[in-house]
Amino acid sequence: QVQLVESGGGLVQAGGSLRLSCAASGSISQYRTVGWYRQAPGQQRELVAVVSNNGYTEYTDSVKGRFTISRDNAKNTVSLQMNSLKPEDTAVYYCNAIRFAPYTITLWGQGTQVTVSS
Description:
The strands form two sheets. Strands 2, 4, 5, 6, 9, 10 and 11 form a seven-stranded mixed β-sheet that branches. This protein is mainly β. It has no helices and eleven strands. It has strands at 4-7, 10-13, 18-24, 33-39, 46-52, 57-59, 67-72, 77-82, 91-99, 105-108, 112-117. Helix content is 0%, strand content 53%. The protein is globular and about 45 Å long.
């Protein structure tokens, strides 16, 4: 089974940038959507950004214009460029991949901490 490993988290001041990367142990080309979710303490996990195989992207409203998601099926990677970071972006960020055929498979990484100081 394909495994996802995130990297790139850390501590940054408000207004700064980070780039998260997710490396898959196998091919992600058959996963229709890949993306990033986040979970802040005491809150539910929420979608940050996803990208489908046809290039369609979706972002949660709070990160539109600041975050950019990309996928590279040849390298089996998913990246999230985060600019103009805010303290409310502080959370554990999880990589996610979903395929629907021949049956549904949902993959999660172990998470990477992003902390934005004010």
